[in-house]
Backbone:
């Protein structure tokens, strides 16, 4: 296989079961690291198909040598439990928080430490049981740069009375980079678990199998002051540069208008700024109910606090839906752009409150608005 092929061609070849020479894979990845991760890595890893995940692991062997896997052993005395962040906020709520909760129950006298970035740590600031070890995963740059963080952690997390829980983190490239003694390393293979269940259930089942306890998704951010009279609805229209998650046309302004007829206060996240903020602001202006709208432009943890204090959450597939599910806030998820039906099943929000998920790829905008307005 020539190194001059595109990332899309490499993905197609991997899906056909072909195994190109690793030196050619390395050349492609180093030449175009952004497209390599976005097109090849994420497509294979997020397929939840064991054969495609195996293809992903083969391709990553161009940078990460294979190491033997051993069954973990829990030390008789555990002083510190390191839980690796999943890097993205939605996954840290839906998956990592369950692990944190279970570790607090299983090891009541141990320090439970989240290994991740500041934004993830802010989700649990108000929980005195959770410590924080700063580890900023570079979501851009070369493949070697993204791999180096996991290698750097090996000497920092190791210890005789310590264990590392890896919920399929990008820090370890989904369990490929050893960060401690293999005997003290517990990896949750979320992408190859042989079930079509929701990731919430899969995480809980794995914890019971390995540790004999489970947990619940939760949030503990510093409380944010909520404004406006109730009832209140929080809305997130962010898509993280993935336009396939959006419903096109004037859907967003009509959605806000519809909710404005039911709620006295509409709390809208302006997202990461830039074009996304301009789009959201334009939809709010066109809705015809700007007097009811309050914009949030702070941290995601702060917005999650607002979600927990609201009467309803509505948004696209994003971290907000998982914050609502973990908080017990009734939610309506407009789920578009899913790579497959299995992807939608795995990532659909799951919580103790009322959860409604609509497959926005299979419905016209008017029908979605009709469901939301009921």
Residues:
């Amino acid at each position: 296989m020539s190194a001059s092929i595109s990332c899309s061609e490499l993905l197609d070849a991997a899906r056909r079961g072909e195994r190109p020479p690793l030196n050619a894979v390395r050349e492609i990845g180093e030449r175009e690291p952004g497209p390599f991760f976005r097109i090849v890595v994420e497509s294979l890893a997020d397929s939840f198909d064991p054969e495609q995940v195996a293809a992903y692991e083969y391709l990553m062997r161009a940078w990460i040598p294979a190491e033997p896997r051993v069954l973990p052993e829990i030390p008789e005395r555990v002083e510190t439990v390191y839980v690796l962040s999943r890097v993205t906020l939605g996954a840290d709520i839906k998956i990592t928080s369950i692990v944190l909760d279970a570790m607090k129950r299983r090891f009541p006298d141990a320090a439970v430490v989240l290994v991740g970035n500041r934004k993830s740590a802010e989700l649990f600031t108000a929980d005195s049981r959770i410590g924080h070890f700063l580890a900023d995963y570079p979501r851009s740059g070369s493949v070697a740069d993204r791999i180096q963080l996991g290698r750097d952690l090996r000497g920092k997390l190791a210890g005789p009375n310590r264990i590392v829980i890896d919920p399929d983190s990008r820090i370890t490239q989904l369990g490929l980079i050893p960060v401690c003694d293999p005997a003290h390393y517990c990896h949750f293979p979320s992408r190859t678990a042989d079930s079509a269940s929701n990731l919430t259930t899969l995480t809980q089942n794995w914890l019971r199998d390995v540790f004999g306890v489970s947990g619940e998704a939760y949030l503990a951010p510093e409380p944010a002051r909520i404004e406006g009279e109730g009832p209140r609805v929080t809305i997130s229209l962010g898509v993280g540069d993935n336009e396939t998650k959006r419903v096109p046309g004037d859907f967003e302004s009509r959605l806000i208008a519809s909710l404005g007829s039911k709620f006295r206060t509409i709390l809208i996240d302006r997202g990461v700024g830039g074009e996304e903020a301009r789009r959201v602001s334009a939809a709010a202006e066109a809705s015809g109910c700007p007097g009811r709208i309050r914009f949030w432009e702070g941290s995601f943890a702060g917005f999650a606090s607002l979600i927990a204090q609201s009467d309803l959450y509505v948004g696209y597939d994003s971290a907000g839906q998982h914050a609502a599910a973990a908080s017990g806030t009734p939610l309506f998820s407009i789920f578009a752009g899913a790579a497959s039906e299995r992807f939608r099943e795995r990532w659909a929000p799951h919580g103790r409150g009322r959860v409604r998920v609509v497959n926005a790829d299979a419905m016209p905008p008017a029908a979605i608005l009709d469901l939301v307005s009921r």
About this structure: The longest strand covers residues 111-116.
